Amino acid sequence: MQFGLNFFPVIDPARKSAPQYYQETIQLALLAESSGFEHVQTVEHYGSPYGGYCPDPVTLLTAIAARTSTIRLTTGAVIAAFNHPLKTAARLAMLDNLSGGRLDAGFGRGFLPDEFAWFQVPMAESRARFAEMVDACVALWSEESVTWTGDFYRFGPVSLLPRPVQRPHPPVFVASATSAESCAAAGKAGHHLQVVPSVTSREQLREMLAAYREAWAASAHPGRPRIQIKYTCYLSEDRAEALDAAERYERNYVEHMAGAVAGWAGARSDQYPGYEKFVDKVRDYDFAASLAARKVLAGTPAEVRDQLAAIAQWYGDDLTVSIQVNPGHMPYEQSERALRLFADHVMAEV
């Protein structure tokens, strides 16, 4: 099992400013690199406290790349429907060059109705746009000259500059929330996988991972599949302190997520079966149940080690666990202490 550091800014600007958040993020990334973490990653969201401090993961990861030398840099994930493949491939290739070949390129479909409305993109097109975006970026990275004629994009002939450092192209990750079908498609294509256990059940996630692994094996891809699984992590020598912070900041997450997913109350899409239930899931959130189901890591180092052991038993020990230690408006000192505890007393002993 490997470990990475995940940044998902669910922050009320009145509680922490953007400059402060970015400075703290870079400092934590530096500490993660010196502590032996495998990667740092961040998201793409717009227009609300639910991720809105990171409308462009490439910009934030470029700032981190300038201060680091070994840790991998992961988009978790670029939203395919809101970006043009020529520009996306070029910007990601530039980051791969600036970082000396440390990019892991994660792509996602997006799932918030408001964001699709703001970009004037029909949600019904999200799956097809996603597939075309990934295929076009891989072609632009891998081929000397590309003429693209797709359902949504037409361009070329064009030779992408700069060429990515990693050949034939940077590792591609696919973000999947609830769909075993999407996981199987990723495995068949030879892409890596990003999942978030907080939005699905244990049984459903096990089905997703089984579909992914089976599709990868059946397609006989070289190398091994990489699976990133994302958790918030609250760590302290004092159990009560860790659990108090966990409940407080998880509720902050849920409250801001409620605003972000409110559009599902009136939206329906065959591309997102069951997503209208997000509103009910958020309303019915129960922290104790979430902790018991291992959807969040919280407690003393020994307790978090036990939680990770259960996760490995359920989902496999070939995972890369990507933890978030600075949720919401948590004070930097508390986040840094949690990261140091994780590195010294969890990661070193798992």
TrEMBL record:
<dbReference type="InterPro" id="IPR011251">
    <property type="entry name" value="Luciferase-like_dom"/>
</dbReference>
<dbReference type="GO" id="GO:0016705">
    <property type="term" value="F:oxidoreductase activity, acting on paired donors, with incorporation or reduction of molecular oxygen"/>
</dbReference>
<dbReference type="GO" id="GO:0005829">
    <property type="term" value="C:cytosol"/>
</dbReference>
<dbReference type="InterPro" id="IPR050766">
    <property type="entry name" value="Bact_Lucif_Oxidored"/>
</dbReference>
<protein>
    <submittedName>
        <fullName>Luciferase</fullName>
    </submittedName>
</protein>
<dbReference type="InterPro" id="IPR036661">
    <property type="entry name" value="Luciferase-like_sf"/>
</dbReference>
<feature type="domain" description="Luciferase-like">
    <location>
        <begin position="1"/>
        <end position="316"/>
    </location>
</feature>
<dbReference type="Pfam" id="PF00296">
    <property type="entry name" value="Bac_luciferase"/>
</dbReference>
